[in-house]
Amino acid sequence: MAVAAVVIAIAADLPLRDPDGIFGERMRLMAGTVAIFIALDIVPRALARSGWSAVGAWHSIRAVARERYTKRRTALAVTGVLSFYLTYVAYRNIKSFLPFITEQDVDASLLDLERWLFFGSDPGVLLRDVLGTGVVAHVLSASYLFYLAFVPISVGFAAIWSRRYGAGFWYLMALGINWTLGVASYYVLPSLGPVFAFPDLFQPLPNTGVSALQEVLVEHRVVALQNPFATGQVQSIAAFASLHVSVVFSAALIAQHLRLHRAARIFLWSFLALTLLSTVYFGWHYVVDDIAGLAIGAVAVYAAALATGQRLGRRPSDEGPSDVVAHHEGKEDRVDPIEHAPVGAERTPAVLLPGVTLEERLEEVAGRGRDGDGKAERHRSEAVDGRVDDRQEDPQRGGAHHDAR
């Protein structure tokens, strides 16, 4: 995406911009956000380890920080965050180039298609008639604007809080693919969106945060089109397809697959429903834009799974060493099962059965082997005894994962 942005800028003689000051003030804000995420990840664990006592808390914080944020994990977290922002900046610039390269002239055709699908009615008008223009308008506005915070927050979760590298990078890769496919769709069907192409249809809507944002986007577009070299603003008006819908749908699909906490999944699916309503209600998008957004979100999830080695339909018990969270002095990588509590230095090792340690299970197997008289049984019993002894002498040895399986 970065290379594409540079190539298009050179070919079209257009400037590259830092939208919203992402590599300026926003970068400092992002650094502060990252620091907060890391603190919330480390401090509660450290306090729990120290028995919620101030005595020894600093030592526990340092110990947990070393275990949770190894060089490898830190490098991956930084890579994930910077990759996301670089891709996003490229996306915003390529989107801004759109009116300089092609005419955004398919709105009339999209509106005709929409009216045909809804038997001559406009979906935005229908929603306004059904839902009204009172409290609902402000609720949908707040939901739509929350997306602006949702994306960086979700990036923080994926890159910093995720205890499974594969899962975190799956989501980050899906975001990048969403930006890529989304900006390509703007060039395939260049359109403005109902509220910008046919503003009279949305005059009855009250003043909300969304209406204020729409006015700002119009102002930025006018300034950028007059002289793109004389302003640091980028134009951000394009309708097909809806990336609000595609990104939230990708997040909901991945959360569903990873079996995140039920509350998180309910929130994401509810957020998706509100996003679908708000995009049409305020005239950001046509219904077909939302349908295309759902398709892009699904493709992004699948393509990102292939790119990051995630197997769709995998059960939690199928997790392996690629789902590493951290390691202690390079001795042992720990796997964080999807449906179980995180396995860290402050907790006991994962077990095969509730209340039964791995050593007890191995001793039970060894005991069964001793009951037989055959040579093979004795050989297996001796091998298991050796594994139990090794495990007790060095619980963090490299083969612990294989023993657990």
Key phrases:
16 helices, mainly alpha, 405 residues
Shape: elongated
Secondary-structure element order, N to C = HHHHHHHHHHHHHEEHHH
Q: Please count the beta strands (DSSP E, at least 2 residues each).
A: 2
Q: Over the alpha carbons, how many angstroms does the gyration radius reach?
A: 27 Å
C-alpha end-to-end distance: 41 Å
Q: Number of helical runs?
A: 16
State the low-pLDDT regions, or none.
321-355, 398-405
Beta-strand residue percentage: under 5%
Quick one: biggest sheet? 2 strands, antiparallel
Helix fraction, binned, reads: 55-70%
User: Mean pLDDT, nearest integer?
Assistant: 80
| Strand order in the sheet with the most strands | 1-2
Instruction: Indicate the structural class.
Output: mainly alpha
Describe this structure in words.
With 405 residues, this protein is mostly helical. Among the domains are: 104-316, no CATH class; 348-405, no CATH class. Helix content is 66%, strand content 2%. The chain contains 16 helices and 2 strands. The chain has helices at residues 2-12, 25-49, 57-68, 71-101, 107-117, 123-131, 135-161, 165-188, 194-197, 209-226, 243-258, 262-281, 287-308, 358-370, 375-393, 400-404, and strands at 324-327, 333-335. It has a two-stranded antiparallel ribbon with strand order 1-2. A hairpin with a 5-residue loop joins strand 1 and strand 2. Helix 2 crosses helix 7, helix 11 (243-258) crosses helix 13 and helix 14 (358-370) runs antiparallel to helix 15 (375-393). The longest helix is centred in the first third of the chain and has 31 residues, at 71-101. It is elongated.
